[in-house]
Automatic annotation (TrEMBL):
The keyword Transmembrane applies. This is RDD family protein. It is a multi-pass membrane protein. Its main location: membrane. The chain crosses the membrane at residues 30-51, 57-78, 114-134. Keywords: Membrane, Transmembrane, Transmembrane helix. The keyword Transcription regulation does not apply. It comes from Brevibacterium salitolerans. It is found in: Membrane. The lineage of its organism: Bacteria, Bacillati, Actinomycetota, Actinomycetes, Micrococcales. Residues 17-147 form the RDD domain.
Length: 272
């Protein structure tokens, strides 16, 4: 776990992706995009032959278009719509985030995709490996220029000092149907609640709205009118902590009952 200081002087406790995890993630992505490239190339060749077009006249143009599509357009779209995750990152529990811990946008994904061709494809991964090895957070050139960072979502989330539940949510939160929140999203929400007081009002509101939009898919019905995004996040995290405490109590009670039963067994009786 390391501390990332944002441009607003907010200290975020993050777990940067391990160097080996990033390398394996890049390899998985490379194989996936290579399969897509070969499939599209074969499909294009079949289509041109079916249309009785001389393939040699369009070969160079087709290769350029397919290369740009599979190495820039597809990776950029995947990271944009998945909020910083690709197939390799999904497999290893990684996510690319902004320097302030927020989800990346199209601009960040485009810069990373453009540099990926040079760092990984053109040099066989040599430049990315060298820069990542020298960087304390395993960042490559694309991360440095885009202002992003790859983090591990499987790290233990920091525990907020105190969660304040708004009184008007007392009746809603016990009745709300909360599906299991993904560990990565839970981690980012707790991280935000921990550092919210250090942010500027504009950054605090923007980040709360961003996280609340992600969390909406796991909660029904929506909170009552007048609930701010940060109130919504706090209520869901408070409920998850309460449910965790209830599970711990049930586990401890079951263990105590088991010990009591073991203590009442006749002397010399062994369980097999």
């Amino acid at each position: 776990m390391s501390v990332l200081v944002t441009g607003e002087a907010v200290a975020l406790r993050v777990q940067p992706a391990h160097y080996a995890a990033r390398a394996l993630s890049a390899l998985i992505d490379y194989v996936a995009y290579l399969i897509v490239y070969v499939a599209l190339f074969v499909s294009a060749a079949w289509l041109l032959s079916a249309l009785q077009v001389r393939f040699d006249l369009l070969m160079n143009a087709a290769l350029i278009l397919l290369t740009v599509f599979t190495t820039v357009a597809i990776p950029c779209a995947v990271e944009t719509f998945s909020r910083g995750r690709s197939l390799g990152k999904l497999a290893l529990g990684l996510r690319v985030v902004r320097a302030d811990g927020g989800a990346i946008s199209f601009r960040h994904a485009l810069i990373r995709a453009l540099l990926w061709q040079f760092e990984v494809l053109a040099t066989g991964g040599g430049v990315a490996a060298l820069v990542g090895l020298l960087s304390p957070s395993s960042r490559r050139l694309g991360d440095m220029l885009a202002g992003t960072l790859a983090v591990s979502e499987r790290a233990r989330a920091p525990r907020p000092e105190q969660i304040v539940l708004s009184p008007h949510l007392y009746g809603w939160i016990p009745q709300a149907d909360v599906s299991p929140v993904p560990a990565g999203l839970h981690y980012r929400i707790v991280q935000f609640l921990t550092s919210a007081s250090q942010r500027t009002p504009e950054s605090r509101q923007e980040r709360a709205i961003e996280l609340a939009e992600e969390l909406n898919a796991f909660v029904a019905p929506p909170p009552p009118p007048g609930t701010s995004p940060e109130m919504f996040l706090s209520a869901v995290i408070a409920r998850s902590r309460w449910e965790y405490g209830q599970r711990q109590q049930r586990t401890e009670a079951a263990a105590a009952r088991f010990r009591d039963r073991m203590g009442t067994l006749p002397h010399g009786l062994h369980l097999t």
